């Protein structure tokens, strides 16, 4: 039987090589690079934690970090409300006895088939202040005063992008929740009905606790997604996270530090240091979240 | 036992998810050079890959490079342009990954110097034609060792384009000073015409506009030299006034201009909905292509007083350099000699309506001719790019981002000046 085991290992090897080369090695090289001073594209001398200290104490890096971090937190909270809650309600509706379930499932999942860049481009057009469909529509139904430069105003730009992102990711969340809800045996509901439980009681006492694994997976994925948000912001507002950093998050800030702007100004050392900070933040927060959810499961 | 499994699995999941999230954006690997199938008896066929950030020039280069290929039948040149805003990232990744490119278009000044200093380029001081090019232009692609690493391609000027027909129909004269500019803007606005088609979404457009407005406040080279000697700085009254004037222009820009793309601003101008448009001279080609019937003209930088010195704001737009790791250095040199030749300069200027950096080129286009003549009369460098393009982020970037912040009421005029000066203080050494 032993040769079978070896065969499995041998078959795993190519994937492992690719994974180590493209995922593990870059992480360690970022760690490595963050301890050096950089002169343009050349590695300079070993400077220990200097890059990290500059990142947290020197202006403008400090301000950019905290502002970006704040925007990531907003991104997470608003996404939980606008994506997860909506997706859960939609999943509940689809599992209940409504007609055209399959149709709704398909429609909700459709956006996910587009590439993020395409979504960004489409919404840039829809939200254009001069000829965008959204403002045109608002004027058409008599709500001119609601029309505004959605992406050009610091008050609305970030929330607008988060909502677009939620719309884009909704289908995936609904699918995960559907899987979780459909795994709940119907006997439990039948028993609860016999005991005279109301719909709300069933939701809070049966559905939510038993769908917890799906909620956990989605919350963790949303958290990671919120803290590495980049593509959509980059596609809609560019690497500056404009206007005037109002949509700047840690990943766009990282991009600017590591790659600079059109006129240069990059710093590989500072960029790597920020990548390391991001990595530690996301991995430790994910671990805490997992631990917390796991404990909840054991309690039940 | 199950718990151990769960914990172990969780740990692996954490590592995997975090690994997915912290890896930097990967660059597309550059394509390797492919060998053409046709075999020539004398020379091995060679393909040279040439990078550029000007996707809009692709057709013109196809024509011009065909001339070169006719002379050297064994060489094929593959012109690969990338999106301008992504170009630097692509170049950095290509160079550090070990390259699949022979000829690079180099961003001027700081960036070209940093690529040269990192040892990625071949020096070109001895290349045929380089010694004829003005020293100031060669400065745009010089390494710290003083050697030349790039053949400058073209000179850009920041100008105020205006629609001659719109001006004539409304009885307006092209403005020379700040007060005249404001008067023209007021008149156009009263007629329901957008005075200046300005986009503010990409902040770099704001510093270009500032460079044209500024001479009206700070004057010309005298002030710039004072700045370089450290006798004056961004908090100086004259410079602060130039920022103040940028703010005073806001009512004459399109509504919500910070949310508008440059493409939309251009459209406002070439469809006759706006009277003026401020940007680099390279937009001339865009307008002549998109609306050939448009009566177009331009104004150089503003003068301090009527009839005073109205300088052209100039900078070298880019250069071409040879990547050290090229497998075909001889062929690359041949191509560079072509790029440094008057023949190429003339073709480039004619095909693309641009100012060539190669001496002895006479522009065919009357507006480009006018730019050349005005530059010869009076010229100032694009201060932010030529002298303040260093730092992390660069002082230029800090300045233009702060201007954007000013337009969305996040910063005052003084705060823009303070932020810019704070950025320069970190690295700028006055020339004594």
TrEMBL record, chain A:
<feature type="domain" description="ABC transmembrane type-1">
    <location>
        <begin position="69"/>
        <end position="289"/>
    </location>
</feature>
<comment type="similarity">
    <text>Belongs to the binding-protein-dependent transport system permease family.</text>
</comment>
<feature type="transmembrane region" description="Helical">
    <location>
        <begin position="73"/>
        <end position="95"/>
    </location>
</feature>
<feature type="transmembrane region" description="Helical">
    <location>
        <begin position="107"/>
        <end position="127"/>
    </location>
</feature>
<keyword id="KW-0812">Transmembrane</keyword>
<keyword id="KW-1003">Cell membrane</keyword>
<keyword id="KW-0813">Transport</keyword>
<feature type="transmembrane region" description="Helical">
    <location>
        <begin position="202"/>
        <end position="227"/>
    </location>
</feature>
<dbReference type="GO" id="GO:0055085">
    <property type="term" value="P:transmembrane transport"/>
</dbReference>
<protein>
    <submittedName>
        <fullName>Sugar ABC transporter permease</fullName>
    </submittedName>
</protein>
<dbReference type="GO" id="GO:0005886">
    <property type="term" value="C:plasma membrane"/>
</dbReference>
<dbReference type="Pfam" id="PF00528">
    <property type="entry name" value="BPD_transp_1"/>
</dbReference>
<dbReference type="InterPro" id="IPR051393">
    <property type="entry name" value="ABC_transporter_permease"/>
</dbReference>
<keyword id="KW-1133">Transmembrane helix</keyword>
<feature type="transmembrane region" description="Helical">
    <location>
        <begin position="157"/>
        <end position="181"/>
    </location>
</feature>
<feature type="transmembrane region" description="Helical">
    <location>
        <begin position="7"/>
        <end position="28"/>
    </location>
</feature>
<dbReference type="InterPro" id="IPR035906">
    <property type="entry name" value="MetI-like_sf"/>
</dbReference>
<feature type="transmembrane region" description="Helical">
    <location>
        <begin position="268"/>
        <end position="293"/>
    </location>
</feature>
<keyword id="KW-0472">Membrane</keyword>
<dbReference type="InterPro" id="IPR000515">
    <property type="entry name" value="MetI-like"/>
</dbReference>
